[in-house]
Amino acid sequence: MSKPIQSMALTVPRSGSIESYMQSAYGIPMLTAQRENELATRLYSENDLQAAQELIMSHLRFVIHVAKGYAGYGLPQADLIQEGNVGLMKAVKRFNPEVGVRLVSFAVHWIKAEIHEFVLRNWRIVKVATTKAQRKLFFNLRKNKKRLGWFSNDEINNVAETLGVTPKDVLEMESRMSNQDQAFELSSDDVDNSAGGGYSPALYLEDHQSDLAVQVEDEDHSAHANKRLSNALVILDERSQDIIRTRWLTEDKTTLQDLANKYHISAERVRQLEKNALNKLKGSMAA
User: Fold this and answer.
1) 151 near 170, Cβ under 8 Å?
2) How far is CA 111 from CA 55, 80, 107, in A?
3) Domain for residue 83, yes or no?
4) Domain that residue 272 falls in
5) Do 262 and 225 belong to one domain?
């Protein structure tokens, strides 16, 4: 039943029409408890895919709500929602109405699990082109490069002079552009064409004895993630902890200026402290 249900996924647009998608999702009526139980029973007992589709569509608004909570990672909202939709479909597939809980209570763990995996795969500590000068380099470097491989000293100086940056900036951007991410999983074509049978990081993490369904159902994924974050926060000093908590971990976000007034420093200094603290947290949680 997995493939038929997954084929029902409502593709999330990656352009400005994301607003139209969200408007459409919020326009789908929510289900009463009685109607939800009826549909879930039909799916569970009769493998009714029409019932599955109605269950999925009526909960798209909840996926959007959860995905908004991950906006601080700098990842495209459309991608976060799409990953959450995958989690929703997995939850609908495994939902047993006889347990006596609402689908949304069961699905939240699956939705968050898929989004968490996406964030971990895509959150980069060092980003290419983070300043105006670096963006200029990024978009012009290939055009000014006359051959493959590293620049010679003369080429470095010529590019730096042409773009109005320093030779150090050119070397740094060339190094960043030369570092490519390795695919987490190999495609079937990659495996077939690989002389050694193919390998990827996913193979080192694979555990055939584990059952993701059992793991997610038996533990609160949110509690686990919060515990990891709490443990990581310990490495920060009290001021940095306060900045992270008030800027990222509370409902009412504190502004940079409010924190600047509190600690009698400039708003720019608060921003620097926040950036350093986030980098430390990323390194700690990744480890």
Assistant:
1) yes
2) 14, 10, 6
3) yes
4) 220-287
5) yes
Residue 151, C-beta contacts closer than 8 angstroms, at least 6 positions apart: 145, 159, 170, 171, 174
DSSP element (H, E) containing 35: helix 33-46
108 within some domain: yes
CB-based burial label for 69 (10 Å; 0-12, 13-18, 19+): exposed
Q: Is the dihedral of CA 151, 156, 162, 163 positive or negative?
A: positive
Of the candidates 167, 165, 135, 163, the one whose C-alpha atom is nearest the C-alpha of residue 151 is 167
What does the alpha-carbon distance between residue 4 and residue 162 come to, in Å, rounded to a whole number? 55
Contact 54, 5 (CB under 8 A): no
CA–CA gap between residue 149 and residue 176 (Å, rounded): 13
Q: Which residues are CB-contacts of 212 (< 8 A; sequence separation ≥ 6)?
A: 113
Nearest to 285 by CA among 119, 126, 129: 119
- The answer to whether 77 touches 18, Cβ cutoff 8 Å, is yes
Domains held by the chain: number: 3
**Structural tokens at position 203:** 């193979």
User: pTM for the full model?
Assistant: 0.44
Q: Which residues of the chain have pLDDT under 50?
A: 1-3, 6-9, 124-129, 142, 146-148, 180-208, 210-217, 219-220
Which pair of tokens denotes residue 80? 């976060």
The CA dihedral of 226, 229, 233, 234, to the nearest 10 degrees, is 80
Can you tell me the distance from the alpha carbon of 136 to that of 157, in angstroms, rounded to the nearest whole number? Answer: 16
**Interval 223-249: pLDDT, tens:** 556 667 777 788 899 999 999 888 888
Tell me the CATH number at 231: 1.10.10.10
> To which residue do tokens 């190999």 refer?
186
The predicted pLDDT at position 179 comes to 52
